[in-house]
């Protein structure tokens, strides 16, 4: 997920996506420790997407960059 997609979503949609990304990241990390078939680039993109969402939620809650929190 890129930042433009994330900015167009509401807070509840972002939290839902965040939960899904965290679950998928956990599953990939678990599989990578037991098997060698996990895709390392997917782990990297998931970690970055999680960071983007967390940053955006924090920006909205603190009022940084003039953005208003979305309901």
Automatic annotation (TrEMBL):
GO molecular function, one term: structural constituent of ribosome
UniProt name for this protein: Large ribosomal subunit protein uL29
InterPro entries linked to this entry: Ribosomal_protein_uL29 (IPR050063), Ribosomal_uL29 (IPR001854), Ribosomal_uL29_CS (IPR018254), Ribosomal_uL29_sf (IPR036049)
Pfam family, one: Ribosomal_L29
Keywords on record: Ribonucleoprotein, Ribosomal protein
Family indicated by similarity: Belongs to the universal ribosomal protein uL29 family.
SUPFAM superfamilies listed in its UniProt record: Ribosomal protein L29 (L29p) (SSF46561)
The species this protein was found in: Rohdeia mirabilis
CDD domains associated with the record: Ribosomal_L29_HIP
GO biological process: translation
Any one annotated GO CC term: cytosolic large ribosomal subunit
């Amino acid at each position: 997920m890129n930042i433009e997609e994330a900015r167009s979503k509401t807070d509840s949609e972002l939290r839902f996506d965040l939960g899904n990304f965290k679950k998928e990241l956990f599953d990939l990390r678990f599989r990578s420790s037991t098997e060698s078939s996990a895709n390392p680039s997917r782990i990297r993109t998931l970690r970055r997407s999680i960071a983007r969402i967390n940053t955006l939620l924090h920006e909205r809650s603190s009022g940084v960059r003039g953005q208003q929190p979305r309901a």
